[in-house]
Amino acid sequence: MEARIWPLYRLRITTPRLELRLPDLNLAGELAEVAAAGVHDEARMPFTVPWTDVSPEERGRGTFQHVLGTIANWRPQEWTLSLAVLCLGQVVGRQDLSATDFAVTQEAETGSWLGLAHHGHGLGTEMRAAVLHLAFEGLGARSVTSAAMTDNPASLRVSEKLGYRADGLTVTSVQGTYRTLQRLRLDRADWAAHRTVPVDIHSLEPCRSFFG
């Protein structure tokens, strides 16, 4: 039923270890449990919006609401594709791809998190590579942007391996603290030059109109 009404539920992006797909209610619940268990070292906030700075129960509930909200608020002119990341059938994190007026700008933005128990295995690079393949190969993007705190070397390393270039700094306030954010940009040529992860996209055609 869900896939007939909302074809994005059929969309799959696969790599040697991972499957990325829009979570149904059951998967959204599993994703919430992964978020509740923790996604980063509590000593340092890696996000500009400190959504993790709540109780585990609230963190899980917020994750569940976020996924439902992206579907409720979806428009071809402004969308966020919030995908559950599964490794060998187990939910390990979330990978987002979002855009505004993509049909005009052909530019999208990535964001993600990985359950703390799954850090250090190269999954962050592989799941970002998957969604970049969707953006460039599947949707014809010209560029994709991202950002990370300058004191978040793990995220910056992922971007560097995938070919992103520095695109300036932004100063922001997070929890009343001065933080510096590194903007990053990846164009089609750099993406193609840094491709190392095999990626396949499944059931994209019925979804194209959703992306504008």
TrEMBL record:
Enzyme class: transferase
SUPFAM superfamilies cross-referenced by the UniProt entry: Acyl-CoA N-acyltransferases (Nat)
InterPro entries: Acyl_CoA_acyltransferase, GNAT_dom, Ribosomal_N-acetyltransferase
EC number: 2.-.-.-
Keywords, alphabetical: Transferase
N-acetyltransferase domain location: 17-165
GO MF entry, a single one: transferase activity
Record PANTHER family: RIBOSOMAL-PROTEIN-SERINE ACETYLTRANSFERASE (PTHR43441:SF11)
This protein's name: GNAT family protein
Species annotation: Streptomyces iconiensis
Taxonomic placement: Bacteria, Bacillati, Actinomycetota, Actinomycetes, Kitasatosporales
